[in-house]
Amino acid sequence: MKYVLVTGGVVSGLGKGVTASSIGLILKACGLRVTSIKIDPYLNTDAGTMSPFEHGEVFVLDDGGEVDLDLGNYERFLDIKLTRDNNITTGKIYQSVIDKERRGDYLGKTVQVVPHITDAIQEWIERVAATPVDGKEGPADVCVIELGGTIGDIESMPFIEALGQFSYRVGAGNFCLIHVSLVPVLNVVGEQKTKPTQHSVRGLRSLGLMPNILACRSTTKLEENVKEKLSRFCHVPLENIITLYDVSNIWHVPLLLRDQKAHEAILKVLNLKGVACEPALEEWTSRAELCDMLHEPVRIAMVGKYTGLSDSYLSVLKALLHASVACRRKLCIDWVPASDLEIATAQENPNAYRSAWSLLKGADGVLVPGGFGDRGVEGKILAAKYARESRKPYLGICLGMQTAVIEFARSVLGMEDANSTEFNAHTRNPCVIFMPEGSKTHMGGTMRLGSRRTYFQVVDCKSAKLYGNRSFVDERHRHRYEVNPNMVPQLEAAGLSFTGKDETGRRMEIIELPNHPYFVGVQFHPEFKSRPGKPSAVFLGLIAAACGQLDALLKKGTAKSFVLSNGSSAMKLHLNGTTNKLANGPLVGIYYNGNGLHA
């Protein structure tokens, strides 16, 4: 097993996650099997109880693991399925060591950070690295490890020590350290400054780790004299200094690495040059270029609670991007704070109220993502009401589906106090209730989590057609409240169709309004399984409906014929599982394989 460690210096937020994902992608393109591990030095056992404002979205895995959003980047770039153990936290490590101590596994020894914590870290890495994540048997060839935080953080010291020991134990030809650092440009002098990176590398070396490759973040490409200076002071070969400058979209980052021969430097350090081939990134390159060429916009109003931090909805944004590229549209997100749509805001802040409603009404489609707590819920209900009555394409995810059900009960069934028991425990019409298996005393890991199966109840519905007319789908969940099954007959009689249910038939998974152009709600989180070139079915449906392409997409049921508009010319694609040339358009072919449109 070969290991690539990605560390960060100077400041946080440099893009270590995207860098680690891009390294994994380019190594995979060289014909190697790749797995990934993210180390988060915080004391939390997992990301499940952390606020999105604190740490961005909580990404959910097939096995129910609630993990750091960087694992979402790994899955999207590498098209793999990770497990909860691929996210290591200080809390997990200390918990495992304390559990061993309580069992008496240390035979009376004094349990210390060195060697017991550091040994536990190394054992965890070796065990998880050997677990296949790509659907094939046997371990991967390379494990990419990202160490969260910044070199010098006190909470990461045990991991630094463990990784120093680990690099020595596995040997020089099996370990490659890539240090991501900042080379700022001061406006006063207009010069790229190397001193922050020099200090960062000096700190790394003082802790026992020697970088093999420097990945330098900067607004522009590094000048040759700057690279020479970094090479001289950081003791890194000139050809191993890579510039990660700002690009139009993150799909270009692996191409930056390839163009600067980063793969050759990594393969040389790991003694893999005779095993790997040249990176095959033609499809990836076409997709990155296609994304840059799109100009005709599709506007989606994102009605959420955490709109102040886009990372709170990172996977939703990526799923929308995947779908918009498949429909050849430039994605434009209009952020609408849900609470700004409420009547109370009209009195307290009229400008914010008018702005929110203007954005909502000006959008081509409406998306209400998941969330917790009662802030902004009435605004989400109003957004669902507007989309239903104005026949504007709507997609509700998790809470977004529940608020759509509440709105329908209030407006169509006349149940004025219809609500979720999460927001009103004493409502006379509880449309959404607490799940019986949930815990009201413990928050972490007690929701309905991970991959669950949804069975389609209606053959001739939009969601079933978008999923390729399959009888069931497996999607990831994260919720502790559900639609009240006792109210389903009343809702269905009034015209709300529950087109997807779980295996018992008692848990509602998908709702639709049959006579609406596109009004879909899902209890699961489809964004977590969306991939570049393989967009999530319901996101594809939303974008297609928002830009007038849904009827063509659904025309034959299995979406094998699709008409795309390219400004002045129209292109018709017959999609039968093979790449087809565009009749009158540039760049690439697009094909459909049952999971989505591929560019």
UniProtKB/TrEMBL annotation:
Pathway listed for it is:
Pyrimidine metabolism; CTP biosynthesis via de novo pathway; CTP from UDP: step 2/2
Q: Catalysed reaction(s)?
A: UTP + L-glutamine + ATP + H2O = CTP + L-glutamate + ADP + phosphate + 2 H(+)
One short Pfam name that applies is GATase
Location of the CTP synthase N-terminal domain: 2-272
If you read the UniProt record, what top EC class would you report for this enzyme, in one word?
ligase
InterPro entries per UniProt: Class_I_gatase-like, CTP_synthase, CTP_synthase_N, GATASE, GATase1_CTP_Synthase, P-loop_NTPase
Q: Does the keyword ATP-binding apply?
A: yes
Q: Which EC number(s) does the record attach to this protein? A: 6.3.4.2
User: What family does this belong to?
Assistant: Belongs to the CTP synthase family.
- HAMAP family from the UniProt entry: PyrG
Domain Glutamine amidotransferase, by residue range, is: 310-543
The protein's role, per its UniProt record: Catalyzes the ATP-dependent amination of UTP to CTP with either L-glutamine or ammonia as the source of nitrogen.
| Keywords attached to this entry | ATP-binding, Glutamine amidotransferase, Ligase, Nucleotide-binding, Pyrimidine biosynthesis
The species is: Cinchona calisaya
> Protein name, please?
CTP synthase
Q: Which GO BP terms sit in this record?
A: 'de novo' CTP biosynthetic process
GO MF annotation list: ATP binding; CTP synthase activity
The superkingdom of the source organism is Eukaryota
